[in-house]
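Reminder to self: keep the SMILES exactly as supplied, no canonicalising. Ligand is flavin mononucleotide.
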Amino acid sequence: MSPLRIGSLELGSPVVLAPMAGITNVAFRTLCRELELERAGSTSGLYVCEMVTARALVERHPVTMHMTTFGPTETPRSLQLYTVDPEITYAAAKMIVDENLADHIDMNFGCPVPKVTRKGGGSALPYKRRLFGQIVAAAVKATEGTDIPVTVKMRIGIDAEHHTHLDAGRIAAAEGAAAVALHGRTASQRYSGTADWSEIARLKEHVTDIPVLGNGDIFAAEDAAKMMAETGCDGVVVGRGCLGRPWLFAELSAALNGNEIPVPPTLGEVTAIMLRHGRLLADHHGEDRGMREMRKHIAWYMRGFPAGSELRNGMARVSSLAELEGFLSQLDPTVPFPKDAEGPRGRQGSPGTVALPDGWLDDPEDTLVPAGADIMHSGG
Ligand SMILES: Cc1cc2nc3c(=O)[nH]c(=O)nc-3n(C[C@H](O)[C@H](O)[C@H](O)COP(=O)(O)O)c2cc1C
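Structure tokens returned for the bound complex:
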């Protein structure tokens, strides 16, 4: 498998941790990177931070600034911006450059959350071809003369009648983006059904001058090789598959580099990973908030493993590291990784009509910045 080049960044394996709001903070990325090193011998992928809103960054919102925390040895530092406005995009990217906040800027044009699309943000935005192009161009301009590549992450389009990915891919490349990533669903599909990898193949045929990354439904190491073979994409972006399985990147890089896939961890090894995750979250957020964040991860980690309902309920309400340690010590460390823990986790949901601003579909060339769309939100 050849390495993946994204602008100045050369990745030893063509694997990207998908930005996930509320998940891919410094704690989770550190854990994934440590496990890739420990189990596959190197840290070679790209681990993207949870998204931050460009406006909130420019306004130095303390919560947003905290979200841009990177590990002391983290490289490359990859930051995702949610943005709807060329001017704010330029200011945010310039701030990243001037203050040396990151080594890579990704942009989120895939969010399907109704409160975002209703205002014209996220996955609704690429429909406005010229505005989309102006936003990409603004970020590229702000990073000119630096080694910081700008990339775009998007969906197939708004719905089956309004595909935007081919135009957006072509426009992003023309405006200087260093790669595009496609989640093989429309906004109206949200996270339901299966990702349509054939649209990743179409985008790859359409955009020939920059790498095209495929995203959607990679839940095991074999899925990544399959997506690359089926679509011809240059790399893969992995989201929900690593929830409760941060060692997945070791498996992915081993599989894609033709090495033996490491044996999945036993329950004893998983409890050590959970404890490390808990400590990293406590370092980042403080113990109280860290443990509240840890609760959802515990449910994902424990999937398919035996544990009595009392223990599960206790862990779902964990409030201190000492308590977490106490719960984890009650689990049988010899239990092997369960077969039925494979498959989708995290968001699924059902399809629905995409909420859009009035008249949004009337004029794809309109460059009016959608009002009120740069709100804080979560999702992609
Ligand atoms: C909890 C959660 C949060 C997400 N947050 C973001 C985000 O901040 N930015 C983004 O571009 N995509 C976000 N996404 C979308 C993922 O990056 C990814 O595109 C999607 O989950 C499909 O990939 P998967 O099938 O590997 O999960 C999020 C997804 C989930 C499940």
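Points to follow up:
The CA atoms of residues 110 and 270 lie 32 Å apart.
The mean pLDDT is 95.
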